Amino acid sequence: MSEAAEYGMLLTTTPSREEAAKIAGLLIDEKLAACVQLLPIESFYAWQGKTQNEAETLLLVKTRSALFDAAIAKIKSVHSYSVPEIVAMPFTAGSADYLSWIDEVTHESLSP
């Protein structure tokens, strides 16, 4: 395992798989992410004073931590929620080969 402080994952949810796929495609096409996984989930949350229960799609966005702000801005620019969940988690360790691959396929201007 390698030190992985320069890498991490963003999490966001969407109301549909179609919207999730659109966001995933944009992040990959614009080299803001190396990989985006989509998972169907059920969410319970408080919104406007009421408990909500909705089917959503969870996006797991693997990228460089230096790209977090740009990726968050891209997600917010196309997301249908007025307050989308977008949170970041840094990696503490990871496979050196996997982390090198993230470098290879994300934004060139950040190459080491």
Topology:
Elements: E1 2-3, E2 7-14, H1 17-29, E3 35-47, E4 50-64, H2 68-78, E5 86-90, E6 93-94, H3 96-105
Antiparallel strand pairs: 1-6, 2-4, 2-5, 3-4
Describe it for me?
The longest helix is centred in the N-terminal third of the chain and has 13 residues, at 17-29. The chain is α+β, with helices and mostly antiparallel strands. It is 30% helix and 40% strand. A hairpin with a 2-residue loop joins β3 (35-47) and β4.
Strand content: 35-45%
Biggest sheet strand order reads: 3-4-2-5
Radius of gyration: 15 Å
Please report the number of helical segments.
3
User: How much is the average pLDDT?
Assistant: 94
Largest sheet report: 4 strands, antiparallel
Q: How much helix is in the residues?
A: 25-40%
What would you call the structural class?
alpha+beta
Distance between the termini: 19 Å
* Low-pLDDT segments, ≥5 res: none
- H/E order of the elements? EEHEEHEEH
